[in-house]
Amino acid sequence: MVWDKVQALVFDVFGTVVDWRNGVAREAEPFLAKYGQGRIQPLALADAWRRQYSPSMEAVRSGQRPFVRLDVLHRENLEKALRELGVNPDEIPPAELDALNLAWHCLDPWPDSVAGLTRLKTRYIIAPLSNGNIRLMLDMAKRAGLPWDAILGAEVAQAYKPTPQAYLRTADVLGLAPDQMCLVAAHNNDLAAARQCGLKTAFVRRSTEHGPDQKKDLVAEQDWDVVADDFGQLADRLLA
Amino acid sequence: MVWDKVQALVFDVFGTVVDWRNGVAREAEPFLAKYGQGRIQPLALADAWRRQYSPSMEAVRSGQRPFVRLDVLHRENLEKALRELGVNPDEIPPAELDALNLAWHCLDPWPDSVAGLTRLKTRYIIAPLSNGNIRLMLDMAKRAGLPWDAILGAEVAQAYKPTPQAYLRTADVLGLAPDQMCLVAAHNNDLAAARQCGLKTAFVRRSTEHGPDQKKDLVAEQDWDVVADDFGQLADRLLA
Description:
Mean pLDDT of chain A: 97
CATH superfamily of the largest domain in chain A: HAD superfamily/HAD-like
Radius of gyration of chain A: 18 Å
Largest interface: A-B, 19 and 19 residues
Largest sheet of chain A: 6 strands, parallel
Number of helices of chain A: 11
CATH topology of the largest domain in chain A: Rossmann fold
Order of helices and strands of chain A: EHHHHHHEHEHHEHEEH
Strand content of chain A: 5-15%
Shape of chain A: globular
CATH class of the largest domain in chain A: Alpha Beta
Helix content of chain A: 40-55%
Oligomer: homodimer
Number of strands of chain A: 6
Low-confidence stretches of chain A: none
Number of domains of chain A: 2
Distance between the termini of chain A: 14 Å
């Protein structure tokens, strides 16, 4: 592998850089205290909400629906998740649903994320290549101190991962060939799509993204160019 | 003025945040030593190159040409500027022209820019709203330490200032109404276009952008919401 060619590291964010599950649960707690009928666990809402994530993007990926930013999909998905848990969102003031929708803007990074990114930034361009929209990523970064060089991803590319355009347009915006860019992700399917587009790939294990009983993405399912247990180890390998 | 509504400051960059004229001249110096026939002053090339800037965007603004990023226009404009100065670019290796084209990626900020932006970032979202493309702005920020929260502007909006879409799509990406955003610029015409779109306006005087004999933009030509002599004074006023 000619790693010297790589000029930019682009990052999956939800699950790879930040802990969406505990963050959403934390933000949902006061909401559920009011509207959860005393029986919905915050983590259960986080999981139900996230289950709608990929299906909701499918209409955009398939071209049935024009690109809309993730904030819009999250807001629709929140209503679906609440219904699934037996709560009727029509009985909740829309402003309260709007406020809860911002939970995704204020997720905490994994403990090693900021320090690792700060080290990696000294040698590489670092940017999110997330399905999250620009304002979401910006709010998250400002709150958590994520030191991105730029905010790229689905909204800039106007395409959701794992559509090839999401990866290829990001490389194009950076003026790079695909193999001058490496995707860092905790998800084998994201890395597989990136590799198909010619990107380099780095797998970071996040074995509690889905909680203590996580089943998937515990191991690298292909020979990714780099495999690391956290961003500290990733920086050790990429800066060596 | 209800300034409390403003959540984001978006900045013109060339001339307002960075000194393009001396930066381009510095980068052009070794090039002209080789190809300038001993008679072209670096500052003269900087001025000739910049004179092509706005006219070159007009084809995109008018819809005659699809959006292309500023790096592409700068490269075309370099050839025009050289011809105007009596140098035939066809006799110069394209790789040398490509290298000089990156001069715009490594301009120095005005002495007060980084400190002022760092202060303003504590209260506001700060982002460029420049006609420069993402990679150009990114390289510049990384080299100079400009602490942007995100890189917005013409390439994200797919429209060049002063086209209204450049301002309005930037507000939309930030999820803000136009009057929740303030343009900071050293150019009265940029501020006038932003005000037409409903943005708040801050004029920062950069009286040597065009050199010691500058004639334009020495004074605020409308009652802009804020007027300041540098980014320190701007921060004093907006953080008061």
